[in-house]
Amino acid sequence: MQTALSHHFSKLLVLLIVGLFVFNSIAIAQSRPQKGETPKSGGKKNQRPVPKTEAELKAEEERRKLEEEEKNAVVDDEVLKIKTNIVNVDAVVYNKKSGQIITGLKKENFAVFENGVKQDITNFATPEAPITVSLVVEFSKWSEI
Prior knowledge:
mainly alpha, single chain, 2 strands, 32% helix, flat
């Protein structure tokens, strides 16, 4: 049993080493050529630069102007902070006699006052689902004490 297991591990190790060599040789074969291998055009080492045409000079001048404008661009780091107070008031309107909730109300049906001064209602919306309110009252012997 021990020899069979070690025999399988040795085969696996040999296959792993062979696979690494094959993978390495494929990777080397597909690598990019070195920079020194590319031939130079013209064959001359000391070649005089060709004078630029008017179109090339204009394009270069425009590029320089754009770069200068980008460098001199004004960075607006001013931050404007606005403080607003929005108060949400949830209200349920129901009929006193029947106890049914009244729907279809508009913002004109409501008035909100703060310190006796009427406030404007800016946002008015009805909820997607009705609000469920529950009241829990506990009656026990301990509440009598």
